[in-house]
Amino acid sequence: MTKALALLRNTRKTVAVSSAPPECPWEFLSAWRRASAPFALILFAAALSPAADHDQWKQLFNGKNLDGWKHVGPGGDSVENGLIRTHGGMGLLYWTESKLGDCVIKIVYKMRDKNDNSGVFVRIPIAPTEPWMPVHYGYEVQIDNHPETSNEDEYHVTGTLYSLTKPLAKPGKPGPEWNTMEITLDGPRTVVAVNGEKVTDYTEGEPVPEKKFDFEPERGPRPNYGYIGLQNHSDNDIVFFKEVAVRPLRSGK
Questions:
Q1: C-alpha 142: how far from its chain's center?
Q2: Which residues contact 38 (CB under 8 A, 6 or more apart)?
Q3: Cis amide leading into 176 (omega within 30)
Q4: Interior CA angle at 37 toward 34 and 20, to 5°?
Q5: How far apart are CA 55 and CA 62, in angstroms?
Q6: Cβ pair 122, 183 in contact under 8 A
Q7: Residue pLDDT, tens place only, 151-175
Q8: Are 90 and 234 in contact (CB under 8 A)?
């Protein structure tokens, strides 16, 4: 535990200004996961109380301001007409109140243009201080219906774990139509559905392709519980988020 805390202090000092992975070694993540999992479970349960109804959604975005959220990295986010709007980038707006796991996260979003780039991050091991640690050591559920326009393949399309999983379907709607994404975190399993169609079903340890670009995430395990966040990608990629909600898994899932 002492070693893990020392590594945590070193990690928090890292401020990456490029896509190179910051110092966040896998042995640290393993130690941190063992040490923090019971506390994450308590925090998550507290965040959802007093309602114990597994069918009830808890709204993480109140439609008025960004209370409970914090932005790191370039660019930012604002609330306009009851929607979170991304600005510039690349940065990350993350939910600070608790880590999430063994739950379903619902995201309702739309692109400003026919296609824009963003992402929903899950399983971020520690509270981020810059945007690249979540890229390399969490999972980005991609929002980008046409990755080929930036010379990327289908492993980078909406609903995939960015560069790690091949899509089972491509149901993303173009802007300005609304999309509903549901991300199920079931222990080490991550399932993503977009507009009611399953796109990703991945369990830790399953094979993934090797990195093609240096900005792709490091390969390796992610924690069962972690922070979540919304990416602001660039000045040319504007995405609006109407709803960010969470509910615990039902009994028997």
A1: 9
A2: none
A3: yes
A4: 70
A5: 19
A6: yes
A7: 999 999 999 999 999 999 999 999 9
A8: yes
Residues paired with 198 in a beta bridge: 193
| SS3 per residue for the chain | CHHHHHHHHHHHHCCCCCCCCCCCCHHHHHHHHHHHHHHHHHHHHHHHCCCCCCCCCEECCCCCCCCCEEEECCCEEEEECCEEEEECCCEEEEECCCCECCEEEEEEEEECCCCCCEEEEEEECCCCCCCHHHHHHCEEEEECCCHHHHCCCHHHCCCCECCCCCCCCCCCCCCCCEEEEEEEEECCEEEEEECCEEEEEEECCCCCCCCCCCCCCCCCCCCCCEEEEEEECECCECEEEEEEEEEECCCCC
C-alpha–C-alpha distance, residues 166 and 161, integer Å? 8
pLDDT at 29 over 80: no
Taking a C-beta distance cutoff of 8 angstroms, is the pair 104, 93 a contact? no
Say which residue the tokens 């169609």 belong to.
197
Angle between helices 26-48 and 2-13 (to 10 degrees): 90
Question: Which of 19-23, 39-43, 79-83, 209-213 comes out lowest in average pLDDT?
Answer: 39-43
Is 165 exposed, middle or buried, given 0-12, 13-18 or 19+ CB atoms closer than 10 A?
buried
